Amino acid sequence: MSVSVLFRHHVRLHRVPLVPLAAGLALFEWMMTFVARQPAVSSFLTAALRAAPPEFLSLMNQDLLTSVSAQGIIGVGYTHPFVLIMMAVWTARVPCAALAGEVGRGTMNLVAARPVTRAAQIAAALGAFLGGLGILAAAAWLGTLIGLLGRPLPGVTAWRYLPVAAALWLTFAAFGTVAILVSALNREAGTAIAWLSGLMAGSYVLDYAARVWPRIASLRPLSLFRYYEPQRVVRSGLAGCDLLVFAAVAAGALLIAFVWFARRDL
User: Fold this and answer.
1) Number of CB atoms found within 10 A of residue 114's CB
2) Which letter does DSSP use for residue 69 in this model?
3) Long-range contacts of 67-70 (CB under 8 A, 24+ apart)
4) What are phi and psi for residue 228, nearest 5 degrees?
5) Which pLDDT score, from 0 to 100, does residue 212 have?
6) CB 230 within 8 A of CB 60
7) How many CA atoms lie within 13 A of 162 on its CB side?
8) Residue 70 and residue 230: Cα distance in Å, rounded?
9) Per-residue pLDDT, 235
10) Cβ atoms within 10 A of the Cβ of 8, count?
11) Which among 14, 20, 25, 71 is positioned nearest to 165, based on CA atoms?
């Protein structure tokens, strides 16, 4: 019962921002299906990407052969900075407000005065975060679905991007468990958000740098973005090793968060 009450509390706090985030993702992915069916766009991208240095393609996490096709252009939509930032906003907002934010505002004392376990507080925060994250990933895919249903593209179906939306959810779900750990370690939401933002940005930069700088290529597996490659997912589906990495990160972060939050001073 305590988990459901806290879960509804988090939903009430964050349901309003969830609406524009979901609408923005759906609209953006719908627009990518519109862009993909424009022959002039494909021609322009082909010429531009052929002239672009390899470092630029690495920054976009793309290769020339896949990016210039209609299927590839839609796939680019799932690695675009706009999509990553929208997902990152939710990932930072909910977990950091649920634990560190409550402590900083002093409302955690009211929660702690009731018969609610620390584990229930983390479970409720995790449930609210993952549920909202699922809505965002589904909204992105629905944008692709609506765009392709409205005007189909030869050889391209929305179902091929369903695993991509799942991979998007898995990537930020793993980051979200890290966010819960960071939130459990801090007393202010602002501090927790700053730490988490640094971790996500650092992970993105490491993935890019490791692709363009051979001397640190061996460090690339340390970035969670290494395991999020929409173009590969479209072609081959979700890889089992990627799922194991996401699961391991989530399990490790949650275990430490449960243990630390249970013992810390509120």
Assistant:
1) 9
2) S
3) 67/231, 68/42, 69/42, 70/36, 70/37, 70/42, 70/153, 70/154, 70/155, 70/156
4) -115, 100
5) 80
6) no
7) 6
8) 14
9) 85
10) 12
11) 25
Q: Which domain holds residue 60?
A: 2-263
Q: Are 182 and 195 in contact (CB under 8 A)?
A: yes
Match 């953006």 to its residue by tokens. Answer: 28
For the chain, the maximum distance between any two Cα atoms, rounded to a whole number of angstroms, is 64
158-172 pLDDT, tens digit each:
999 999 999 999 999
Quote the percentage of the chain above a pLDDT of 90: 52
Q: How far is C-alpha 173 from the chain's CA centre?
A: 7
Cβ atoms of 135 and 11 within 8 Å: the answer is no
The helix-helix angle for 2-36 and 81-96 (nearest 10°) equals 170
| 106, two tokens | 């002093």
Q: CA geometry: angle at 173 spanning 62 and 130, to 5°?
A: 135
Closest CA to 192 of 132, 104, 129, 110: 104
Look at residue 27 in the predicted model and tell me its pLDDT.
Answer: 96
The answer to whether 163 touches 237, Cβ cutoff 8 Å, is yes
Of 204, 206, 211, 208, nearest in space to 172 by CA: 204
pLDDT value for 65? 44
Burial class (CB in 10 A: 0-12, 13-18, 19+), 253: buried
pLDDT digits (tens, 9 = 90+) for 103-160: 877 666 566 556 678 888 899 999 999 999 999 999 999 999 999 998 888 888 999 9
Report the domain count for the chain.
1
Quote the pTM value.
0.87
